[in-house]
Fold:
Amino acid sequence: MSKKLEYVTIRHSNRGVVAGCVMLIIAACILLAFPLIFFSIWGVWGISAYRETAIRLGIAGVLLISAAVYVLKHKKPDQLSYMENEDEWYLEDEDSYMEEDGDSPELNAASSFEPPTPAEMLDRYRDLVERGYMSEEEFQQKRLALLGPDSPEPDESSAQPSADSSNIASQLTDLVNLLDRGLISRDEFEEAKKRLF
Structure:
């Protein structure tokens, strides 16, 4: 955990503990001071000893419960905190922080996505042929579009396909998934496939 992150967490934890201790002190003062106060005005208010004890215990109990809740709530802060004069947001229950205009690990993973290689795309098309969603002629057409005529089978280190080819393969896979789930009919699938090709 970074030093800045530790500072934010400790700052919030100490604030909760201090506030809880103040509440505990107030509760103790009420428990100790109320007998003296009520003893001096007993005859004026006509409050019995039982009622006086119940009032003291009730108020002190509320303060004690409030103090415990406040301390527990701030012991492990899980909200985002913004430090003054800093351009970063800190997530206090994580081991890393993210700049306001920076990239999160998820965004970095998304930006590092690479399109499938020709070999991977041909594997997808072969799978569609085997499952009956694409004819052999259509497969050969896609193979020619990816590799050109009389091209050997690509390996994993082959050049990347065009963005259009990758997009078509992705859309075709989505259509197959919709057809398998019964969300579109076979005729709708064939029409959509013709529009893609």
Q: What stands out?
A: Strands lie at 80-82, 88-91, 97-99.
